[in-house]
Design goal:
Order of helices and strands of chain A: HHHHHEHEHEHEEHEHEHEHEEHEE
Distance between the termini of chain A: 75 Å
Number of helices of chain A: 13
CATH topology of the largest domain in chain A: Rossmann fold
Radius of gyration of chain A: 27 Å
Shape of chain A: elongated
Number of strands of chain A: 12
Oligomer: homodimer
Largest interface: A-B, 81 and 81 residues
DNA sequence: TAGAGCCTGGACAACGTTGTCAGATGCGGG
DNA sequence: CCCGCATCTGACAACGTTGTCCAGGCTCTA
């Protein structure tokens, strides 16, 4: 019963539930408004005795500075926005955490949202963040046209695109070497004797997917292997369709002996499919996955450093805000081939 | 070179890089300030012709409403804070995403931060969020004393604790049935003939860890098995120490035949240890892990529904804000035993 | 003891928006 | 033709904070 009462006290109706303001603190401490402000912000020019009185009033009233008003006055929000595809995807966890750490080191908070790979939702999120006047944005773009950001950039919102480049505008970009990584991964399979190699990846409208596909084609071409259409499955995303695509490749009268998978989710599904087959099919996946080393065989992957992507992007963001970074640039981080067994299986025809 | 110029335009010095305000829009459209406000907010009482002129000016200037000022005026920020332990932990990804989805459905943005299991950092984060006047807080507590939140609760900040209960204050709590889940998991091992069962878990000061330990003890007691100290390892967290703890249990002259692990990270490490042993040791872990079904043997786990935790918590939060939820309550979500093989191995003495 | 200089404290405006209220305009009816 | 009413528009204050600037009191020195 006392609970109900207490909760009822805080119902809507009064702004912020009637929090005390600096004015209230000043009145209680018997000092001027600005003096309270000075104490709260640790500015000099307040005698210890006055400071004590003010501090006492603050504690007694449970005063907490209203940063909304502060932001309005100062023009900096000390917060940055992060727009990514899906917070729940294990690839974005470390990236997100890395951005957060850098933000924290600069005294900024992180606001984030998932675009769910929907360009409209991405725009909606980005603009909402701009309306809050975040100091900067780290964006993993879903769409490929970011001209809607022009006014924001001009207005001084620091912006860095990660994982995929910006579309139609000139902005900082931090990406992995998707092309090179995929090429190396496929070349690795070729080096182990494979010639009929399947590729299962996301829609080529997604930049990373297109680059990885390009890497696949380049490796095949370098080896003088003509690619057959039946070996490629593009744009499949959901597990069921990935499963079907893989099964079809393997059921072909002249089946693939190896598969290169375009991202972590596809890799996981294909692992499941292969687990149901007795014939050994080689596999190299883009993106590392947890426990990949404990499977039989271990899963060979092209790993990218998600944390480094996030860290690099966030650091560039704050350098933009410092003013120590002038020209937009494109940074490409290397990938790393991790051999664990699945990519070293010989062809079994 | 043009880039440098463009970026230089947006250097600090002028607030928000001199964004246009409603006043500017009003001047350009030749209307009053309030009329612009009406158009921006879709309020009625504006002739189509006037609206067109205003809209034109908005587009021409690239105006975007300043939500900081709006918040200051209206008293609601339409944002909620989420404080968790580590964004990069795969357990929190789905939880975080679920909270975000609910927030989105209510038109709110999500600000989040990682406490890194440090009570001080948790408090710092929570208070920073309160200073921003978030409408509500979802907290996965690191500390066990939350009296510092008293003034905030009184001021009307909706608050829900998830995964672990609040300390020293009366607040909404959403948790998994850690005790029951652990008891069932251990009972499962006992049912398969094990009597010497090890437990490796986190520090008992963490509520979930303590509850799971209690579940372990209860199951053993129910079966009339006295627990030996050598079977329990508490407070180990980092992989190296977990590894040592597991090795010691297995090296004992009278070793354990099964291990119950207290969370996903411990489970993963122990899987690695067991992979190096030939003797079959049974394993049941708390928390599900990806690919657990593909290992040999598959890993039996007590799974909790992280997304449901987040969703439930966020929904309660918004019901607090609605005013449809009056008394703080404690909600316990069930866990689910997923048998995959490792927990069904017979004792091998 | 008077004057200069320093230190502390406070009054006031401004940040960009929204709520209130009153003024202006246009229209129809008496 | 004038009044009343409805509709549209704009002036103004307020939200809670910080930056500017000035007043008053003190100390120190000549």
């Amino acid at each position: 019963m006392p609970d109900v009462t207490r909760r009822a006290d805080r119902l809507p109706g009064n702004r912020y539930g009637n929090r005390p303001t600096m004015k209230d603190v000043a009145a209680r401490a018997g000092v001027g408004l600005k003096t309270v402000s000075r104490v709260v912000n640790g500015e000099p020019g307040v005698t210890p005795e006055t400071e004590r009185r003010v501090q006492e009033a603050i504690d007694a009233l449970g005063f907490r500075r209203n940063d909304s008003a502060r932001v309005l006055r100062k023009g900096r929000t000390a917060s940055i926005g992060l727009v990514l595809e899906d917070l729940a995807d294990p690839f974005y966890g470390p990236l997100s955490r890395a951005v957060e750490e850098v933000a924290r080191a600069h005294g900024a908070l992180l606001i984030n949202g998932s675009s769910a790979e929907d360009p409209e939702r991405e725009q909606e999120l980005v603009l909402a963040l701009c309306a809050r006047r975040v100091d900067g944005l780290v964006v993993i773009p879903a769409g490929d046209d970011h001209r809607y950001l022009e006014p924001e950039l001009k207005a001084g919102v620091a912006t860095v695109f990660v994982d995929r480049p910006a579309g139609q505008i000139d902005a900082d970009v931090v990406v992995s070497d998707n092309f090179g990584g995929a090429r190396d991964g496929v070349a690795h399979l070729i080096a182990h004797g494979h010639r009929r190699i399947g590729f299962i990846g996301d829609m080529p409208r997604i930049h990373t997917a297109a680059e990885r596909l390009r890497g696949y084609r380049a490796a095949m071409e370098d080896a003088g292997i003509p690619v057959e259409d039946a070996w490629m499955s593009l744009g499949v995303t959901d597990p069921e369709r990935v499963r079907r695509a893989a099964e079809e490749m393997l059921a072909d009268p002249h089946p693939v002996t190896a598969i290169f998978t375009g991202n972590n989710r596809v890799t996981v599904t294909v692992i499941r499919v292969l687990a149901g087959h007795t014939r050994g099919v080689a596999l190299v996946g883009f993106d590392d996955i947890e426990l990949a080393d404990l499977l039989q065989p271990g899963v060979t992957v092209v790993a990218q450093d998600a944390a480094a992507l996030g860290r690099t992007a966030a650091e560039r963001l704050f350098r933009q805000l410092d003013g120590t970074l002038l020209a937009p640039d494109r940074i490409e981080l290397p990938t790393r081939l991790v051999t664990r067994g699945s990519g070293e299986l010989p062809p079994s025809d």
